[in-house]
Amino acid sequence: MTLLDGKKTSEAIQNEIAAEVAAIKAKGGKIPHLAAVLVGNDGGSVTYVTNKVATCERIGFGSSLIRYEDTVTEEELLNKIKELNEDEEVDGFIVQLPLPKHIDTEKVIEAIDPKKDVDGFHPTNVGRMVAGLPAYLPATPAGILQLLQRYEIDTKGKHCVVVGRSNIVGTPMSILMAKGGYPGNATVTLCHRNTVDLAYHTRQADIIIVAVGQPGLITADMVKEGAVVIDVGTTRVPDASRKSGFRLRGDVDFDNVAEKCSYITPVPGGVGPLTIAMLMTNTLRASKKEVYG
Ligand SMILES: Nc1nc(=O)c2c([nH]1)NC[C@@H]1CN(c3ccc(C(=O)N[C@@H](CCC(=O)O)C(=O)O)cc3)C=[N+]21
């Protein structure tokens, strides 16, 4: 079994970007700038956004963090998005999800200028991805493609079973794996909460990508010998022995599944760090106007 080292892969991508930023600086070009909007004080969201801003600093990007209490109105948030859309210093920005219930998430996403939508969540970018046009790819699926590519994992003609149909991971992942090219050209099955006999499907899989948020959902008996297993789950579970008071758990019963498969991503240190790296890649593409010209 080979561990797919997301931390190392993410660092390699970040080093590549940092070198490009240094070259841009040397030529006196515009430094890429990412802005992040964070609403509320949820521990997970704060950690992720802090991580994103720290990564910007490390690779030489400009960054700004815009924070609101969770009492912020939808109108205030939409006004800030309009401002960021028009701010020429800002190449790309994200609004960290989830948002409080009184805010319409779809409306917020659709207010973002697709040219600055480095999360790839706007319907324009989703549509362009489906049509095979240049688009910002959502960071987690793009990160999984990078892992497959950098570990030279064969995908052509393989049976890929995606578990979970979220807009952010499962649905785009299923589309990208079925597309032509590499990584891609797989035969894809998309499983979700209404799937009858999940284990029947996962046992057929050469590649399993699971993004559900249910710790331990995928057990060893559900995995074919030699399969590739990609675990996107990052559920925070209480753990009194940790300073933080919690630990991260994936959707895969790692210890037992690892014995059976050819490649597996750990949690933490698997897909998560790639998500950050691909957000940086998208921001660099935004600053170079690679997608929309
Ligand atoms: N607009 C928006 N864009 C997002 O990209 C977005 C979001 N909202 N909402 C929440 C999810 C989740 N997400 C993660 C990013 C990094 C790690 C990550 O770096 N994880 C580390 C561990 C980090 C830790 O210790 O908590 C790892 O798995 O090794 C995980 C999850 C981005 N998301």
Report on this model:
The protein is of the alpha/beta class and 293 residues long. It folds into two domains: 27-113, Leucine Dehydrogenase, chain A, domain 1 (Rossmann fold); 139-272, NAD(P)-binding Rossmann-like Domain (Rossmann fold). It is 39% helix and 16% strand. It contains ten helices and eleven strands. The chain has helices spanning 6-26, 43-59, 74-86, 105-111, 123-131, 139-150, 170-178, 198-202, 254-258, 271-287; strands at 2-3, 33-39, 62-68, 92-95, 159-163, 187-191, 207-210, 228-231, 235-238, 246-249, 263-264. A hairpin with a 7-residue loop joins strand 9 (235-238) and strand 10 (246-249). The longest helix has 21 residues, at 6-26. The radius of gyration is 19 Å and the shape is globular. The structure holds 5,10-Methenyltetrahydrofolate. 5,10-Methenyltetrahydrofolate (GUE) binds at residues 47-48, 51, 94-97, 119, 139, 234, 248, 267-269, 272-273, 275-276. Catalyzes the oxidation of 5,10-methylenetetrahydrofolate to 5,10-methenyltetrahydrofolate and then the hydrolysis of 5,10-methenyltetrahydrofolate to 10-formyltetrahydrofolate.
